[in-house]
Amino acid sequence: MPEGHSVHRIARQFAANFVGTAPEVSSPQGRFVEGAAEIDGRKMLDARAVGKQMFLEFEGDRWLRIHLGIYGAWDFSGEVRIDPSIQIHGQTPGHSKLGQTGEHVGSGTKGSDAAAAHDAPVDSLGEDSITSIGAPRRTRVRMAESDKEGDLLESFPPEPVGAVRVRLLNETVCADLRGPTACEVLTPAEVNRVIQRLGPDPANADNAVERERFVERAGKKKSAIGLVLMDQSVVAGIGNVYRAEMLFRAELDPHTPANTLDRTVLEELWDDWAHLLEIGITVGQMITIDGLVGAAYQKALVDRDERHWVYKLEGTPCKRCGVNIKLEEMGNRKLYWCPGCQT
């Protein structure tokens, strides 16, 4: 499931490419026809993320709420402007022009050379993509392996591929949504009710008030801290990867009841979440090992195992203590942790 950093990246891309325009909104799949009609042709006023949920504001007190869930993802095509706070493969491009095939065409780079240099994300899961953000490609219907991109995307806008729940289209950019858990039009009051159910999100407000809100909510929970960090009503945006990595970095046993932890430990967890979330939003990858530079950093951009301490490393020696990483089920999700470091 896409975690908070991905949703914030999507929101920033909407802010850069759609806010201030009045996009055509349609439902090629046909499952969101009425909702699309409510916001079709209305000016987009804002794009924001809270945890794993995104909210697009339109004129007339209408909001589009999207929760990607496990399978959801957005595909952007056209002349996509990249938010200056977002990096592509560890570099800050400022602006890029994306052709219909999704390659980033920088100044002075043309044709196949540009595609070779900028088309595919660096890592195999496409986590750092700017044109296709959300669930890993292998779990989505984007295009069949036998399809040729050139045949599908010769003109703008491209023909819808797969089950596109909603399409937003302005003069230069097209955004297609597939596979979301939630896709609905809400009033401001309804949006507020959704947000009130969510915990604080440091990407929106990393301050003493929000940190205290997290500490207070987490500190009341008798359940294991490994479960509490995944509770979106306690803190918004943390998923399986960040949960495992944050607990390792804090040297915390995932089974420790949250209400037995000292408040300074909870404060440090909040601060670390704010730190890691900002890296994830900027870089596009959940890099959870600090201090990576040079070749080690470049390797981490390519290989997930080189940017994480414990996630999906079960059965391998801990990089810090040598004890084998353990895998177990916690709250119907896979938990990765080190029995040597996390005691």
Walkthrough of the structure:
There is one protein chain. The protein is α+β, with helices and mostly antiparallel strands and 343 residues long. The protein is 29% helix and 18% strand. It has ten helices and 13 strands. It has helices at 4-17, 33-39, 111-118, 149-152, 188-197, 208-219, 225-228, 240-249, 263-283, 294-302, and strands at residues 24-26, 44-50, 53-58, 62-67, 73-78, 97-98, 104-105, 132-134, 164-169, 173-178, 182-186, 326-330, 333-337. The strands form four sheets. A five-stranded antiparallel beta sheet has the order 1-9-10-5-8. Strands 2-3-4-11 form a four-stranded antiparallel beta sheet, with helices on both faces. Strand 2 (44-50) and strand 3 (53-58) form a beta hairpin. Helix 1 (4-17) crosses helix 9 (263-283) and helix 6 crosses helix 9. It is globular. The model is unreliable at 94-119 and 137-153 (pLDDT under 50).
